[in-house]
Every structure is written in C-alpha cells, then in structure tokens.
Amino acid sequence: MSLPDRARDELAALFPPERRRLDKAGTWPYAYDNSRREAAPDAVVFPLDLDEIVALVRWANAHRIPLTPRGLGSNTTGASVPVAGGVVVSLERLARIVEFRPQDRFLVAQAGVPNRRVQDIAATAGLLWPPDPTSAAYATVGGNLATHASGPHAARYGASRRYVLGLTAVSGEGAVLRTGTRTEKNAVGYDLTDLLVGSEGTLAIIVEATLALVPRPAARAVLRATYSDVARAVDAVLRLRALAHGPAVCELLDRASLGLVAPGLEPPVPAGSGALLLVDVEEDPRLLETVTALHEQALAGPGLLDLRRALDGAEREALWAARRALSPALRRLASGKINEDVAVPLSRLPELVAFLEDLAASTGLRIVSFGHVANGNLHVNILHDEADPGERARAEETARLLFDRVLTLEGTLSGEHGVGLAKAPFVPWQIDAPTRAAMAALKAALDPAGILNPGKILGAPAAPRPA
Amino acid sequence: MSLPDRARDELAALFPPERRRLDKAGTWPYAYDNSRREAAPDAVVFPLDLDEIVALVRWANAHRIPLTPRGLGSNTTGASVPVAGGVVVSLERLARIVEFRPQDRFLVAQAGVPNRRVQDIAATAGLLWPPDPTSAAYATVGGNLATHASGPHAARYGASRRYVLGLTAVSGEGAVLRTGTRTEKNAVGYDLTDLLVGSEGTLAIIVEATLALVPRPAARAVLRATYSDVARAVDAVLRLRALAHGPAVCELLDRASLGLVAPGLEPPVPAGSGALLLVDVEEDPRLLETVTALHEQALAGPGLLDLRRALDGAEREALWAARRALSPALRRLASGKINEDVAVPLSRLPELVAFLEDLAASTGLRIVSFGHVANGNLHVNILHDEADPGERARAEETARLLFDRVLTLEGTLSGEHGVGLAKAPFVPWQIDAPTRAAMAALKAALDPAGILNPGKILGAPAAPRPA
Questions:
Q1: Is the CB of residue A230 less than 8 Å from the CB of residue A352?
Q2: Are A442 and B437 within 8 A, CB to CB?
Q3: Cis peptide bond N-terminal to B215, omega within 30
Q4: Which residue, among A203, A247, A202, has the nearest Cα to A224 in the 3D structure?
Q5: This prediction's pTM
C-alpha cells in the first residue's frame, strides 16, 4: 500500500523535505514500538505546531488516510504501530514547555516533551507530576496520557488521569478541541479531558496538556519486608492502606521474582521468604520518622519474616536496583516473555497469585510477577522459548487463562499499559457489547472517517474465551 | 403540553398507579429544585430498578418525550427542572446500598442513596467518601455525580470525579452502559465514567455507582487565622499548599463575610481584619500535633493579625457554626441573592476579590464571598432587593461582569454547582465553538433523539458578553 499520487503531492506541500519521510529507509524506524510488533507506514511527518497538525488531519480526513500519532514509541501494546498503513504523526518535535506556574501548580507542555523533563522542571519549585512509568526518561507526555500510563507513585497519588487539567487536541475532522480548565475544580461542560486520556490517539491527537502538579516531599525512607507468602504480604498492604498517610510507593515481588533478586540482596532475605514488599515513605522531613514508624507497625503482623529500614542512600539505591533489575533479568532467562499488567481489587490478589502458581506448575512455564500492589496492579511475566512453537502457543494460552481469571476476580486486563493491538481481541471479554457500542458511537462522533489510529482498542474480533 | 393518549397509556402500563403521577397536584413538587426555577412536567415516575428505567427510556425514545432525571432536587442551577415538559424520572426509590467492600475501598450505591448514608456506612470501617456538598444530608449520590458537586474536602482530596470507579447508566436509546472497573487503575477502553459524571443527566441516566473510598483520619484540629486582606490570606494558602500534608479543608471568608460572622466569634477577631481562613487538619492522632504545628507555621506571615487553634470540640463547632451560618444570614439581609461558584487559579484570586470590591462600590450592591480557597473556588453572593426590578437587573449585570472577569482570570464559571439552566447562556463564553460542537456530537451519539434533560448545559443562545 502506498499513498495515491495526489495525496502524496499534497502532503509534500504541507511538510518541507526535512520534516517528512516517504521512503522505506526513512519510515522504517517508525514501523514498530516497544511491543516488538511492526507495520510499515507510507509516510512519517514531524509537525512543529498545532496548525500543521490541523492541516494534516484535514488532508487525511479528505483522503481517508490513516494517521497514527506517536510520541517516542515506548508503549508495550503496539498502540503506535501503523497497522493500517498511512502516516505516522511523530510528535517528538513538539517538545516545548509552554508555561510553568508553580503557584497555581500547573505546567503546560507540548505532547512531545519527555515525562522526565516535566519532573525536572517541577522539581525546581518543589513540585512533582505523579505519573512515573519506568520509561519516564524518554516517554513523552502525549504518549503517557494517550495510553494512561501511571507507575509506582500511583500507590499514593492515584492514576495519571487525575493529573491533567486540560488538553489541546485535534479531532478526526481537524477541529481543535480545547478541553478542561486551569482550575482544580470545574463543573462546566462534558469532561472531554478524561475521555481523551487513555484513548490511544483514536479520538483526537493530543497536542498540548495542562498538567496538575503536587508538592514533592523532601525526605524519603525505604522499607523492605519479607513474608512467608503473598497472602500475608497483601494483609500488610491492607494495613498500610488504612493509614491516613500511606506509602508513596508499594511494590510486591512474588516468590519467583524474589528468587531472581535474592542473591543480590544485602542483608539476605530469610530462607522460606515467599513475598517481598518494597515500600517508599516520602514525607516532610519533620514527619518522616513518625510516619515511617507507623508504616513499620503496619507491616508487622502474621507471616512477617524480616523487616529492614534502609538507613542510607546507598542501601535505598541497592534495594531499588534489585527491583529494577527484574525486567532485564527476565530477558536473560528466556527468549520469550509475555508481559501483562492486570489489576484486581486488592483483596482478590492472593487468589490471583495462587492461580498463577498453579498455572506455572501445570504448564511447566516460568511465571514471574511483581508490581504496584497498593493498587492491585500486577505485572505478570510468562516466560517461554520463543524458538519453540509449542511452548510459545502454551504461553499464549496461559495469558488467555490469566485474562479470564482476572475478570472473574473483578479485575481489569490492563492497569496502565493500555490496549493497543495486543489486548484488542480481549476487550470484548471485559466490556460488554452495549458499552462497546457506546464507545464506538463516541469514536464515530469525533472521528467520522475512522482515520485516527485504526485497529486500536475497539473493533478487533473477539478472542475465543476459555470455557 | 401533555402526553399523547397512546404514550400516556403505555406509560401507565410500565408503572403501577402508586409509582406514577400524571395529575398537576402530584407532579407539582417535581416542577422545581433548589434553583427556585420551575416548569411543570407531564408526569413523574418512580422506578424501582434498572429494567424499569430501560423500559421507560425506550418508551420515551420511541415517542420523543423528554426525560428529566432527578435525585432530591438540591441542585442550585435548575438542572432537574423539566423545562421541556415530559417525564421527571425520580430516582429517590433506588436507594439501596448494593455492596460494601471496605478492604477494597469501594461501595456500590444506587443513584437515590443520600450522600450522608454513604458516609455513615463508610465510617463504620474507618473510611470516607470525599464528596461533601453542604446538601450532603439529602443530596443523592446520583445527583451529586450528575452535577459534579464537591465540597470543602476537595481541598485535600480533589473533586468528586476522582472518587467514582464505575457506573451503571442508561443511554438515551435505552442501552445499559457498564462503565469503569472495580480497580483503582484501569487502561482498557474509553473513560465513559468521567464523561457521564458532570453531564447532568444529558448523556445517560446514572442508576448505580461504584464509589472509591479513602481512609478517614481519626483526629482533627481547627485553626482560625485572620489577615489584613485577602491577598495576604491567599499567600498563606499558597504556603499551606506547599506542605506534603496540607489541610483537609481550607475556607476563606472575605471582608464582607467576616463582617457578618464577626459578632458571633469568640474570641473576637482583631479590628481591621480583612479576611479569615478556617482550616481543618485531619490526621492520624499520632501525627496531629506535628502536622498542626506545620500548618500554624505556614499560616504565619505578613498580614497575619490573629491565629487561634480551637482547643476543644465546642470551640471547633462554634467556628464552623459561624461559617455555616453565612448562607442563612444572607437570606435575612436581602430578598434576592445571586449565588455563583466560580473558580480561578489560586494566584489570581486576590485580583478577583479586588474586582468584586470595586463592583460592590460602583453598583452599590452588597457582594459577599466565601469558599473553598485551596482550590480557588469562591462562592460569590450578589445581594439585591428582589422587588426592585432595577436592582435585580443591576445584580444580573453584575453577575455577567463577574463571569467575564473570571474567564479573563483563567477561571471557570462553575467549580462545583454545574451549568443546568442558570449558566447555559454563558457556556459559550467559556467553551469555544469547535469544542462545544464536539460535546454536542457526543451528546448525539449517546442520545440521538435528544430526550435526556433537554435545555441543560448545551444549546442555549449565548448571552451577550460585556465589551
């Protein structure tokens, strides 16, 4: 597939040569993202401002040419893979901080600004933007919001949608939508902001975002608690969550994860440890000691085998290094890894982990889980030999069984990665037909020609569900 | 206007006599709400379950008969006044708590459950649902969410939308929408939940809501600080907001409000006080003293005239009684009161208050303002003699000047009351035409026949804007 001559000529008139790519070599780096899926676009363009995006969308709408918006491609679901061809709209050069208003606790950023830059600027005024996906160093604000990615700090602050006051976005007909306000409360009109966040560029292209900031606590303590099993660790998390000032971050490592990191931990974890909690307390320095002690009290309980407080920066860093080393370690263990990010209500998490242990035993596959336990959000990694088709199929079947069980446990198929291509066949398992039809009607209202990121979220044929 | 015979007969078949009202005397109590506007409906029905609502909406959609959903009518904007006639759908008998899951921090309530009942039940497990409008004793969950009402606790917790995990709602075609999840994070599908919250029943009728709860701190301190003027008080609020654990509640009284309550305050406020802050610190008992001291440090600064900590429950209650007495006191001062709930970014609040003082001087009208200052949300009361048409017109013109200035100050016309009928002519001042068109397209997608609460939010002719 390629662009019709006339459309191609018009596109060339919209973007100068140095900001368009129409050849295979130039477009190829934009064919794939961190999902390891790929599909070649017919063109890539690099707009510099809102007007160029409006002109581009009008062009695409007139010619019925698909547009796939893209930040820096760090999403894991194929959300920025141009499966229908057409044009990839790279927003990477829209990377300006438009305004920073520390007193009013907001910052206006263009879509292509990396999350980390927002953090660095906010920090100069003692502020924080809570979304902190692992990819924060290069993930863009636009992509972060389009996928509704969060990260560990959601334990304290909740998911990313809360930290967006408004958006400038371009609908599928080229209309400029200016959503939300610069105030923390607003009750005028429909909430287009939250509708666009998480819509993966299928309703409108996010061009600019007004981000809500929060105070950044100046002091931090890190606690490490090991338990006999996940159920006991979850009991401790339930106690932590009852605190008026709970943890900033609360990560769980299951038995398999713990097995991977334990050799590097100092002091070592006790033999028989079945779960580890890594807890960050972030506080005003004048409160840190008391609040940390309250956390320690909450962590103590049946099944606790060991509780440590990192006493200095080096110890804290060593603990977090162990957590961060998990993903790379998995890559060394197996050539194939299916990485899901399901979430369930917290009380159901022990059932989910027990189910995964059974699945690992019955399939012979290694399943390693860790994640943002305070929100019930678990990253489940199903390892397999990519070169063995039978094992690959078994891993995929295991993922289907996981999805099925997560929904039985009142959960969601994705807590923060989004749907993209990867989970699109499973959306009908989670969202019923009338509700999907309403979503499709909203899509048609904002993008009547269906040019915005086709193939993502809705419309994929449903996967067969296990009996 | 009245219902066509056939439609009337069909409606009578859907609801038994004791749950429908078709006569003037029976429908009249449902003609008005707390806005003091009124319009008689042709009928009122009292559904008991989802199926009855689905049948009702299908009937209305087939006959093109307007439906106005209603909780208990405590809204202030006319959102539940049936201006287009048709049927008022009273949700007051859908008042069941469906499920309460303290460990998972959610509670599922039918639309007609009063906010206060949610609080009472949540409190049995040490939990809180943050939305707390003044009307909480009788405002229903459905109405609370439909208007996006918040209240003083938004200072700490943010606006109400954050505390809804999912909804069951019925679209204008009678489709049952099941939105959201039972998890705190979700990245699957479009965010219909937040779209429906604040849509005032114009997109779908909310039937049931899954409410997110938070820990309820067990101890409380109340601080009272008076300043020479509002600008100095706002400076203090900016310092408070920089705390890692800021105030649960932070209310401002301007000079005119302070004049009204000062005679009842003990100890008295110093002469020359131009603004008062009422601050609630809600904490773990083991942190209360330290956190309160941090608040006192933040409140201290230029312009502070007096700072008191309420030492016992009676003193606390007296302070809050003074704040609560403001609204009734206004009713005694003047027969007419235009009550707005604008919000601006916090740094712009002193400009807004100065503008209001100028307006009061130039119009001769008494203008009294107080409100949820931490979010920049100010309740502005423009007092006038309702029997004097000239003064009434001057008050309305003053409200228009207020709205115009609020938008110049980057604000919103409503922080928490919503649009309803009252602000519909001003929506075009705040939301531009392309964005309103997108909202109208979403409305048409979910309610193609336009039967759901017609006349609210969108579509009113724009008021002429001051030059």
A1: no
A2: no
A3: no
A4: A247
A5: 0.97
